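FOLDING PROBLEM:
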Amino acid sequence: MAITQAADFLATWESGTAQAPAGRALLLHRAARPDLGGDQQALLALPVGQREADLFALRRALFGERMQVRLDCSACGADMEFELDAGDFARTLADRGEPLVRVAEDGWEVEFRVPGVADLTAAARAADPRRALLARCVVNAVRDGRPASADVLPAAVQRRIAEAAQAADPGGDVTLTVACPECGEGTRAELDIASYLWSELDAWARDLLLDVHLLATAYGWSEPEILALSPLRRRYYLELCADA
């Protein structure tokens, strides 16, 4: 365990216990980007892939590089377990194109910005998410030299925009294809790093609170005093309690 600011991350965990996944992801992203000073609007405006890269980097800092992932084969149902490298994901997803992208197709010239977390969240609440996302992210649209509305973009142009957005921000959709060791078939699965990291933080926090309880009972120390101890010293004192 590489966590050194135990009290801060316990506070993050406590704040997120009653929140929905989107709120927990924002809390984790705030912890991953202290340079933004907790500016929620700045965090939500970042491209989705940037958030994913930040969360992979945070995961590496807190729990190390190796990530254990379990998945059921979609073909035969076998239980598959494999490892991922959080550091590799953080470096790969951080490599992206320009935030403003331009496409030209069938007389159309469209300039749009790569969607941020706030854009996807707002679009998901709309009756037509695709139309809502285009309305938010298309900066300028011209057809045969004349200004046009994003509402009338043809399907072919919309596909080009989606392809260009994926190329500019590949981390916006982290999908894995894993070959089953039993049947050889590939299974596709989305890797939700926010949920994965939250599950790890939740387990860590509950274990740490148990340690606090045991040490407070044995020595009468306060929670801040116990959290100020390094993980190594806490473990040593716990071993002494067990031997007593």
The chain has two domains: 3-94+175-239, 100-168. Residues 55 and 239 are 33 Å apart (CA to CA).
